[in-house]
Every structure is written in C-alpha cells, then in structure tokens.
Amino acid sequence: FLRWATQLIALLNEPHGSVAANVLTRLANIYPQALLFPFRLSYPQLSDKAQTLPSATSRALALMADELRSPVADSLVAAFEDLTNPELRIKDVCTEARAC
After folding, report:
1. CA distances from 13 to 22, 29, 67, 86 (A)
2. Which residues are CB-neighbours of 84 under 8 A, at least 6 positions away?
3. Which of 13, 57, 87, 92 would bridge 53 by S-S if both were Cys, CB 3.0 to 4.6 A apart?
C-alpha cells in the first residue's frame, strides 16, 4: 500500500474515505516516515473539511495528525511551500494581511 499512499490520502476527501482511513492509520503506525511528507502537504485542506467528513474519517485524520507530528518535517514542508510559486505565496500573504 505504500506506493499508493498519496492516492489513499486523496481519498480521505471522498464519501468512501473511511476505507482509506483504516489503511492509512495502520500504515502511519507501521511506516510513519513513508506517510509524513504527503500527509503534511494534504493536511491543511483535509482539516478544513473535517466537519463535513464522516466521523470515522475525522477520527482517523486526527489520529494520523497526532501520529505523524514532527516539527522538523513541518519546517521542511513550510520551506518547500515557500519555494514553489513565490508570486502566489506573496499574493496569499497580502490577502491574509488585508483580512486582519
């Protein structure tokens, strides 16, 4: 299942995401490093939709977020986000500043 981890993470947004959630929580326990980066990239979008997800999927999402917590990986993901499309990043920062 490791080679399809990113596709399984994407399925968490779907109505049948609880099936993928069961597999992903087991993988997170056994191979946390394999899921760390793709999960951290997807987590902001998934957590925004957590209220609309089935309860089993929401619980699995919270469990994986706790299991895959890593300050070093979070810093790495943030650095990668800053590298891609800097003009979009600046636009997002300006939008957030105007909202405050």
Report:
1. 14, 21, 20, 27
2. none
3. 57
Q: What is the residue type of 35?
A: L
HEC per residue, the chain:
CHHHHHHHHHHHHCCCHHHHHHHHHHHHHHCHHHHHHHHHHHHHHHHHCHHHCCHHHHHHHHHHHHHCCCHHHHHHHHHHHHHCCHHHHHHHHHHHHHHC
Report pTM: 0.70
